[in-house]
Every structure is written in structure tokens, then in C-alpha cells.
Amino acid sequence: MNRLRQYGRVARVLAVVGLGLGMASLFGLMERLHLDGTMARRQRWSQFFMTRLCDALPFRVKVLGEVPTVPMLWVSNHVSWTDIALLGQLTPLSFLSKAEVRGWPVAGWLAVKAGSLFIRRGAGDSQLIRQQMSQHLQQQLPLLMFPEGTTTDGRSVRTFHGRLLSAAIDSRVPLQPVAIRYLRDGEADMVAPFIGDDDLLFHLLRLFRHDQADVEIHLLEPIACHQQERAVLAFRAQEAIRGVVTRPLCGSGPVLDGACVAQV
Predict the structure, then answer these.
(1) Residue 33 DSSP SS3
(2) Looking at domain 2-249, which of 2.40.30, 3.40.190, 3.40.1130, 3.90.1200 is its CATH number?
(3) Mean pLDDT of 62-71
(4) What is the pLDDT of residues 97-146, one digit of tens each?
(5) If you average pLDDT over residues 149-169, what whole number do you get?
(6) In angstroms, rounded to a whole number, what is the distance separating the alpha carbons of residues 181 and 219?
(7) pLDDT digits (tens, 9 = 90+) for 227-261
(8) Which residues have a Cβ under 8 Å from the Cβ of 114 and sit 6 or more positions away?
(9) Mean per-residue pLDDT over the chain, rounded
(10) What CA–CA distance (Å, rounded) separates 220 from 178?
């Protein structure tokens, strides 16, 4: 019965992916017919898809903080491919992704049609991407990036690469730091991280072999970019997110001023 439930959950996710493929095909047809397919519309449809995908994933989501009402450059720590769905459901967003994602079966095509920007690490195209990001933000279109450049196990934060934060400075938009934490039974979740040589399908099966986990999404205080150096911005965002990610966990017990409180 557990195996049947696992495959049933996977089938639900695949059904949502099928919905996404249908939406992406529609945008492809609109492009060929030269019909209106604005980025703002793609972002709205992407949010619709991400919401359905999150509903199919085995997570209970808690959002702490206010979702911005004005366009910002969102920066977040990165734990898993599921980060994209969990954050993408909050508001219409585009994503900055590594170039390898473009070549992923199904997911890469969906990312392209959703309006993602792609960067090749070490390829010297950061200036071009910076210009594309600036243009995106100047059109009042929110954008999210993962400045660590890779995923972690969720218990630490790597150094933020700040060169692309220049797009926020150029566009005079604030940074929106986001800290995402996966928790299972009050401890750091070691099932959710997508790291190393993980395979997407096997990772999905692994998620569904377990019960639901909890996800905290912390929308932290925005950081003004006016007259700030990109290295300073990167450090401030990194430390704000680190303060949440490395906060002590106390199982099911409460935390007061960063310390575990004993329950009698």
C-alpha cells in the first residue's frame, strides 16, 4: 500500500507537469503566430503552475514576512529544485538559472517558456546577463536568483557571488533576501536537499517515500541598493539569510532569543 501511495503521489506530480507542458506549448504557439505573450503574462501563468506543483509536493509550507508589492531582485539560499516551485508560487517571478537547466528534459523547456534567464558559469557572459537582468527589472518584472551558485544541505549558507547584484544597483530596485528551511520532526530535513549526483526522478521518489515535511520561507527585510557596492549588498543579504538558516533547532520545543527553552 505504501508503494502504491508513493507512485500515486508521483503520478499527481507528473499530471501537473503535463499541465505545464500544455501551457508551454500554448506559449510556443502564440510565439509562432506573433500573438501577445508578454513576460508579465508568462510570470502569472508560471505562478499558477508553481502553485499546482507545490500542492502536489509533500510539504507543509509556512511563509513568514510580507510578499513585496513592488518589483525587487529576490536572492535566496538554495537547497533543492523544489525551492523554485515553493518560491515561484508566492508571486509572479522569473528565475536566473544555470545554463545546464536549459538542457534538462521537460524541465528545461518549461523553464525557457516561463521566461527564465540562463547563465554559464565561467563562460564570461556575466556582463550580458547583467544587462538582461537590468532590462527585466526596469520593466517592473521581479526576478529571483540563487547567489550561492549551487545547492547545499540546508544547514549552512555558502558565499554569495555579488557580481550580478549590479543589476539591482543599475535598476535602482531593492534586494529581497529570502531564507528557506526544510524541517522534518523539528530537525533539519536531510531528505529534501538535492545535492551531489542526485537524479531528479529518484529524488522525487525519495521525497514520496517519506511523510510530509515542513518548509519555512522567511521573507526578510528588503535591502536598499542605492549607493551601495555589490560586495556589500551580497554580504548583507548573505548574513541576513545565514541568521535564519543557522538558527538553533529544538525539535518540537520553542526557541527564545536564539536559545532552546526547556519544557517541563
Answers:
(1) coil
(2) 3.40.1130
(3) 94
(4) 877 777 776 677 777 777 788 877 655 667 888 888 898 899 888 999 99
(5) 91
(6) 12
(7) 789 999 999 999 999 999 999 886 544 444 444 44
(8) 24, 42, 43, 45, 46, 49, 94, 95
(9) 85
(10) 6
Q: How many CB atoms lie within 10 A of CB 26?
A: 13
Please choose, from the candidates 242, 219, 239, the residue with its C-alpha nearest in 3D space to the C-alpha of residue 154: 242
Q: Which amino acid is at 132?
A: Q
Distance CA 254, CA 264 (A): 12
pLDDT for the residue 259: 46
Which residues touch 51 (CB under 8 Å, ≥6 apart)? 89
DSSP designation for 223: B
Cα-only R_g, the chain: 19
Quote the cell numbers at residue 7: 507512485
Three-state DSSP state, 176:
strand
Q: Give the amino acid at 28.
A: G
| pLDDT on residue 20 | 82
Do the Cβ atoms of 184 and 153 come closer than 8 Å?
no
**Opening angle at CA 40, ends 166 and 108, nearest 5:** 75
Torsion of CA 50, 114, 225, 218, to 10 degrees: 10
- Residue 159, sorted as left (phi over 0), alpha (psi -120 to 50) or beta, turns out to be beta
Domain chopping of the chain, boundaries: 2-249
What is 79-111 written as a DSSP string? --THHHHHHHTTS--EEEEEGGGGGSTTHHHHH
